Structures are given as C-alpha cells and as structure tokens.
Amino acid sequence: MVDSVIQLVCECKNDPWGKQGKDSLAARLCALTPGTAFKIDESTTYSEMWMGTYPMPPSRVLSSGQLLQEVLDANKEKLIGKPVLGRFDNKLPFLPKILSIDKALPLQIHPDKDLAARLHEQDPDNYPDDNHKPEIAVALSKFETFVGWKTLEDIQALFDVVEPLQLFLPDRHTRFNDDILRSVCQAMLEASDETIANTQKKMMAIPKDSYGKQSYILELLPRMQKQYSIQDPGCLVALVLMNFLVLGPGDSVYVPADGIHAYLSGDIVECMAYSNNILNTGFCPRADRDSPELFTASLKASPHTAADAILPSKTSEKGTHGKTRVYAPPMSEFNMLVTQLHAGDKEIVKAIEGPSIMIVTSGAATLTAEGKSHDIKTGYIFFIGQGVETTFEAQDGVEIFRAYAE
Fold this sequence. Notes:
Elements: E1 5-9, E2 11-12, E3 19-20, H1 25-31, E4 45-46, E5 48-50, E6 60-61, H2 68-74, H3 76-79, H4 82-88, E7 94-101, E8 107-109, H5 113-122, E9 135-139, E10 143-149, H6 152-161, H7 178-190, H8 193-204, H9 216-227, H10 234-241, E11 242-247, E12 252-255, E13 261-273, E14 279-282, H11 292-298, H12 306-309, E15 313-315, E16 324-327, E17 335-341, E18 346-349, E19 356-362, E20 364-369, E21 372-377, E22 381-384, E23 390-394, E24 398-404
Antiparallel strand pairs: 1-6, 1-22, 2-5, 3-4, 5-7, 7-13, 8-14, 9-12, 9-13, 10-11, 10-13, 15-16, 16-17, 17-24, 18-23, 19-22, 19-24, 20-21, 20-23
Helix pairs in contact: 7-10, 7-11
C-alpha cells in the first residue's frame, strides 16, 4: 500500500535570468534534498525549481526514483480523491515552483483557455498545453516586479508631460481608455529599434521633476537597458505602462490569464495552473518574441492599479492553532498555505480533500501523518495525499509552503 506522504526529488532549471551558483535560493533548496545527485556549479545560473507532475522537468519519488505521475496514476483515488479527479483527472492541477531572479523575465502573458486551445492546436511545439495559466507569486525576499497596468490617469499624466512618448499615440489629443492603451502597447512593441532607443534617450534628457511620482522611471531605465538593450521594447512598455512593485517576504501578487507581467528580481514561491504556455514580446531576443498583434489583442485590462495586483493572505481555518495562512486566488485549481512556527510551536493542519505539495523554505520540524513521523528540514519537498491530517512540531523556526486543490 502506497504511503500518503511521499518525499520528492526535483530539478532546477538554468534560464539566463536566474541567479548565479549559490546565490540562487532555488539551487540551494534543490541541493538540500537528501541523497540528491544535484550539485551547484558556481559558473551556472539557476532560475527555478519545479515541483509536481509537469513533464519538463518532472518530480520523482526520492526513495525509488519513480515519477510522481506514475504513482498517482496507480493510486489516483487514494492520493488525489474523487472530487479532484472528477474536475481535473489524474494530473495535479497546479504547478508550484521556487524562482530565483537576477534580471527581468520576458515581458509576457499566459493565454486564457480559449486562446490556449487554439494555439495548442495550431502549434503544439511552442504551445504545449490547452489550458490557461493564472498564477500567484509569494515573495521570500525583496521582490521587484512589473505587473498589470497603471491607472489610465497615471498613464495619461505621463504622456501629457513626456513629449517623446506622444509619437505612440493616434494623435496628440488622444485621451486614454483601455482600447487606446492596447494600441499604444502594440505601437511600442512594433516600433523599430531606432525609435525605441531614441525615445528612451529623449526621456532621459527630461528633468526628473517632470515625471512627478513616476520619477523612478529614470532610475530603472539604465538598469533595464543594461540587462537587455536600449532597443528592447520591454523597457518602454514596462516602465511607461505597467505597475512597478517592490514587495517584501510574505507579500503576494496574482496574475490572471492574459495578465501582463515581468518579474524583475528576488526569490519567490510561485504557483500556477498546469500549463507552460507563454507569449513573450519583450526582455528577450527579437527572434524569441511572439506577434505583437496577437499579444495585445489578448491582453487583459486588469489589474489596473498596483493595489489590484496584490493577493493578501488571511488566517486559514485549516490550521487549528492559528499558525497557518492561506493565499486564495480567484480560480479553482489551487490555494497556497503557509505555516510559520517558532521553535517549540505546534500546528495541526486539518485533512485537505485533495492532493498537495509542500516545501520547507527554512527551518526544521517533525511532520506526523497517519501515525508516522518524518523529520523535515530546509529544502525538503513532500507530496501529501488527500484526506490526511498533518501535525507539525518545530525544532527551529520553520516556514512551510503547501499548494493544494480540493
């Protein structure tokens, strides 16, 4: 009989935007799995560690090397449960990750279900899934990100005083609404390298006071140009049109399907629906960019303020000792629990009526479930089957993130 608590071994990816060597939290956590063959190479970037059943890269059972998906296939009612099976079949409907970000990820959206299905049918190599991909990102450190749109009022104010931007308007007297916002975004993405570079040079020559509360644009422009180039249209779209947020540990953002975003720096726990579809149009080489027309036609008009992008946590009723909080995005595929204990603290998390994956991001504790105790430490990752009550007793201060569906 398969156990409901299964320790996992996961893999770390090497995207160029990741942090170098041991600076990468994703790499350090990955390397702490007991008995893992993974070793950190200081000359390599480590961007993200994936946890779950997505095939690239998949999670495996630590004790046997068997794919987690194979275990679920053979024990789906016990481990996943009928309610989740009835809605999502035997794949985990969520994909948690640890990201360590040194420079901006591509300016991107994740297509909604209708667009994902069309793109997958037309080009399954580049769009491997027919599902949407809304996501959350919870900060583990200082976390900088571009997410969603500024208010129309703030965008209008910028275009009124920063004259070089006005060439992207239909005419100088245009007043912003969501349709104009999309057209301006598309105009920036389709502009020539020369136009993008010259616009930024002219923007840098305008006094800081003219930018008002958006003067941070002048501080970020050189940084973005250095990371990619002054010809990259992401520099304009992100800084002129999008919210720039600086978050601290525990803060979170929700990005809906078709929501524009580009994470800039920091370490985060990310979780999303089961998909790897992406449309990129900036902060990447021109050859890697998707159609600006398709991108802008798909764009969601929300979030439309920085506050709208924030996903607050609240105390979870699943924790009987009040030590567990929940991030609950407006979607059906998952919620995220975080349990934080001081040395000597105890928390009991009630049985979840669906599958979950947990990672210890710091500290050490004992996990007891179904009469068995497990020592858990920083970097340990477990799958926990449905219907299992879990008790955590902390030896050191401990932080545990747990994505689940029910």
